[in-house]
Amino acid sequence: MENQRVFLYTGLAFLLFLVWQQWQVDYVLPKPEPEAIQVVEQGVSVDGTVGNTAATGDTISVSTDVISAEISLNGGEISKLSLADYSVSLEKQDEQFVLLDRSADLYNVAQSGLQGTGVGLPDHRATYSAEQTSYTLDGDQLVVPMTWQQDGVTVTKSLTFTKGSYQVEVNYAIERAPAGSEGRYYAQIQRTQGESTGGLGQVYSYTGGVYSYSEERYNKYDFGDMADSDLKMDNIKGGWVAMIQHYFAAAVIPPQDDTHRFYSTTANEGRIFSLGIQSAKEAVGADGTLTLSHKYYIGPKIQEKLDEAAPFLRLTVDFGWLSFVAEILFSVLKFFHQYVGNWGWSIILLTLLIKLIFFPLSKMSYTSMAKMKQLTPKIQAIREQYSDDQAKMGQETMNLYRKEKVNPLGGCIPILLQFPVFIALYWMLAESVELRQAPWIGWIQDLSIKDPWFILPVIYMVTMFIQQRLNPPPADPIQQKIFQWMPVMFGVFFMFFPAGLVLYWVVNNTLTIAQQWTIMRNLEKKGLK
Q1: Are the beta carbons of 86 and 164 closer than 8 angstroms?
Q2: Which residue ranges make up each domain of the chain?
Q3: What is the Cα–Cα distance from 358 to 335, expressed in whole angstroms?
Q4: For 31-318, CATH number?
Q5: Which is it for strands 216-221 and 208-213: parallel, antiparallel or unpaired?
Q6: In 10 A of CB 226, how many CB atoms?
Q7: Coil, strand or helix: which one is 269?
Q8: pTM attached to this predicted model
Q9: What ranges make up the beta strands (E) of 226-304?
């Protein structure tokens, strides 16, 4: 039957999609460099040493309700930042997830500095002094000031942390600068490639550079692009640049009314990458002062938090080419979560809602399948009668469809219309940081990783076998063989899939079985078997 073929081809297409993703991880995505790296300055890149636990020189420790950070007095860079609400793993619940660091395993830092014309100003290598070496948020905001002095010029670089926020505001106050001099800032995220996410059956998530402004709301500039040529974009108003990875982002956000330059640089034979923003020059005031500012967002890709930080920063939650559908699905998922307080049950409720919405299409599909089944003997007779005349066979077959008022694609179209929703849901569940380490019930304590006991994949295989039993086997022996093995093939892949995705497919299959059984039973009562 044609509908059987559509099921087969759709399933194989999805399987090939998963294989393609894994191929990307294994053969296309660049591999990280394992050795420690001595960083050599290039342009406005940074010099330092990767492999040490902190930047050279003294550091200031900062603690808020959501982050713990270390600020190096060499340049005032954020040399380490961990997230209080996100642990490394279920097995290491007492260890905070580290997003920025200068360790041998991770090199990812947020840097900024000043450049002057007619005046010397501190860049990312300048040494600052501070009155304290430790700060703890006690209130709504915490300001960490550092001071630099040279040739009578004083610069105070202040980092402001806010309660419940992953934004860090950076302010420069320049005093006693010569008349007629100018200054500007630059800010960048500098990192190595790190490890590519993904594994057998796992979701590939982009790691690399992205930028945004009014004309290009979201554009990727990956490590390969940076290695090939430096990014140089002048006269950009507003926007932002960022280095992103699965679930987390580190972004540089300038004042949105200002005009500036986007840039990237590489160092250490293409193993260190910087993506940043350079502001336009501003004249020092008659009183010898100048104030400059920008901010960072360094934290999880929570869409509400990203919206608060900058326009279109939420697009770093990369839902793929069906993002408009995925956004709707995620909004509904969050709505359910507000009431049930569990992401697993929210996935189940969302799956149920999707099945209800598509019920009319499913009914149309099964009705068409039943009608086509009734016509099978007549179609077979036509094929036998006109076996030597393919044109006549097709003509007579179409005449039969018109006479019986049957659309041969009636069972296929509803299935194909649902496929984009499945893909969008796939990306939505895979990219949402809210599901990271989110428990469901019993043995499922993290919906973002594989089922540790493989119970859900086994249930999935059983439901797929049951679905096959509800449909007549294909006439083609080769298709029969493929259908028999498809549950096993998908089950093996799903053993390594995030449990949240497998949960969706288990519930979807279960509801499909109930739906199909109910519809087909009603059709039989009407004489359609």
Answers
A1: no
A2: 2-21+330-525, 31-318
A3: 20
A4: 2.70.98.90
A5: antiparallel
A6: 20
A7: coil
A8: 0.84
A9: 232-237, 240-245, 248-253, 259-267, 272-279, 282-283, 290-300
Q: What is the average pLDDT across 192-203?
A: 60
Instruction: Specify which residues 279 forms β-bridges with.
Output: 260
Could you list the beta-strand ranges (E) of 268-361: 272-279, 282-283, 290-300
Class of residue 131 by CB neighbours under 10 A (exposed 0-12, middle 13-18, buried 19+): exposed
User: Which residues, at least 6 apart from 39, have a Cβ–Cβ distance to it below 8 Å?
Assistant: 45, 46, 47, 48, 49, 50, 267, 268, 272
Condensed to tens digits (0 to 9), the pLDDT of residues 436-447 reads 999 999 999 999
Q: Dump the DSSP string for 398-411.
A: HHHHHHHT--TTTT
- Model confidence at 28: pLDDT above 60: no
Whether 54 contacts 72, CB under 8 Å: yes
- Nearest-CA neighbor of 280 among 212, 213, 168, 182? 182
Secondary structure (3-state) at 148? strand
d(CA 2, CA 372): 9
CA distances in angstroms from 463 to 41, 83, 112, 488, listed in the order given: 58, 40, 55, 11
Residue/partner pairs of 68-71 with CB below 8 Å, 24 or more apart: 68/96, 69/100, 69/161, 71/144, 71/146, 71/159
- Residue 485 corresponds to which tokens in the numbers above? 């093995």
Burial code of 43-58, b = ≥16 C-beta within 10 A, e = fewer? Answer: ebbbbbebeeebbbee
pLDDT digits (tens, 9 = 90+) for 138-191: 999 999 999 999 999 999 999 999 999 999 999 999 999 999 999 999 999 999
Sign of CA dihedral 273, 275, 280, 285: negative
At 45 the pLDDT is 39
Q: Is 94 exposed, middle or buried (0-12, 13-18, 19+ CB in 10 A)?
A: exposed
Q: Residue 32 contacts by C-beta under 8 Å, 6 or more apart in sequence?
A: 192, 193, 194, 195, 196
Nearest residue to 111 (alpha-carbon basis) of 163, 214, 189, 44:
189
pLDDT tens digits along 315-356: 999 998 889 999 999 999 999 999 999 999 999 999 999 999
Q: Which residue has the tokens 């591999």?
A: 31
End-to-end CA distance of the chain: 14
* Tokens representing residue 318 in the block: 């990369």
Q: For the chain, how big is the Rg over CA atoms in Å?
A: 29
Q: Say if CB 269 and CB 342 are below 8 A apart.
A: no
